[in-house]
Amino acid sequence: MEMFGDPAIWLPWTFAALMGLSILIYVILDGFDLGVGLLMPLAQEDEKDRLVASIGPFWDANETWLVLAIGLLLVAFPPAHGLILTALYLPVFLMLIGLILRGVSFEFRAKAPAAQKPRWNAAFFAGSLLASMSQGFMLGMYIMGLTWTVAHVAFALLTAVFLTVGYSFIGAAWLIAKTDGALQARAVGWARGGIWGLILGIGAISLATPFVSPRIFDKWFSLPEFLYLSPMPLLSLGLVAYLWWQIRHLPHADDRRAWGPFVAAMALFALAFAGMAYSFYPYVVPEQITIYEAAAAPESLFIILIGTLFVLPAILGYTALSYYIFRGKATELRYD
After folding, report:
1. Residue 261 in contact with residue 300, Cβ under 8 Å?
2. Per-residue pLDDT averaged across 30-41, rounded?
3. Which of 96, 76, 55, 60 is nearest to 10 (CA)?
4. What is the average pLDDT across 24-50?
5. What is d(CA 285, CA 282) in angstroms, rounded to the nearest whole number?
6. Contact 33, 39 (CB under 8 A)
7. CA-based angle 296:298:304, to the nearest 5?
């Protein structure tokens, strides 16, 4: 009760939770549309328009969550914003280049002459790859404490590859749900290959995180914490087994089951994120600065919270509305 009585405690915690929620939603939603972009070279030429159509109504709104997360970091935890972006300046710059390239390619491929369309498809893939790799690299460096050593950079490069493959998997899972026929069958094949990257990526991060610091190790492996936390890895293993079973038996006559891999992948991402949040709390910069030390003044946070209570439901509302309106299978891409 003391936590909720002191604004200097509950306000930083609330903003950390909102920022974490925004990052998780971004990773899942923009993760699948980045994944669809990564799969472009594997699709037949006559299938690429359907890949774009499957994410066309959503990809712009999905990136709103990244803007919200960075905005919350800036206004609620200014010292942490400076430390994180200073340490990750290069990968952040490369990520923005990738996202810009994706946006330009997405629009120009619809207006370019047929002979130039393959170039914009290639640019769309390149932007997706650059953004995914940059995000994976930043994740690895964050886990390692934002310090640039050879070992930490090697781990970050490894997480860059694994997150990229993980995005391709959730992108394939999205296509399984949003397409049918030959393209859906092809997406099942892509998911069967991509699931290994997802498993290895989550496994590598889960194994590495406790060894970042003795504090995190003790949070996971001391008693009784170890017993309380054991359902998380067990549930993750169950989801991996379910995913493996699902993609081995798709496509299925009952198309409602086509959503199974995507929903399970979302749950797996959420569990991995929850594990990371538990590991690093209360630090916003690992082992350097806590959310309470980095937080802005309670008076400022309270005013920002009032604005957030209006902005967040609006973002949730139009995101949910777009997914509701454009539910069902992706149809032929038309611009007339």
Report:
1. no
2. 90
3. 76
4. 88
5. 9
6. no
7. 75
Give 270-325 pLDDT, tens digit per residue. Answer: 988 888 888 888 888 888 899 999 988 888 899 989 988 888 898 889 888 888 88
From CA 22, how far away is CA 27, in angstroms rounded? 9
Please check whether residue 58 is in contact with residue 322, taking contact to mean a CB–CB distance below 8 angstroms: yes
Residue 192 has pLDDT above 80, yes or no: yes
d(CA 16, CA 14): 5
Tokens of 297: 């003044």
What DSSP state is assigned to residue 285?
A: E
Rg (CA), the chain: 20
Q: What is the DSSP letter of 88?
A: T
Q: What is the rounded CA–CA span in Å between residue 68 and residue 74?
A: 10
Q: Kindly report, residue by residue over 115-133, the tens digit of the pLDDT.
A: 788 888 899 999 999 999 9
Tokens for 280, please give them. Answer: 């690093």
Residue 252 has pLDDT above 70, yes or no: no
pLDDT at 1: 44
Residue ranges per structural domain of the chain: 16-325
pLDDT of residue 98: 93
| Residue 215 · residue 300 · CB < 8 Å | no
Give dist(CA 297, CA 184) in Å, integer: 52
Q: Please say whether the dihedral angle defined by the alpha carbons of residues 148, 149, 153 and 155, taken in this order, is positive or negative.
A: negative
Separation in Å, CA 33 to CA 39, 96, 171, 237, 290: 10, 16, 6, 25, 33
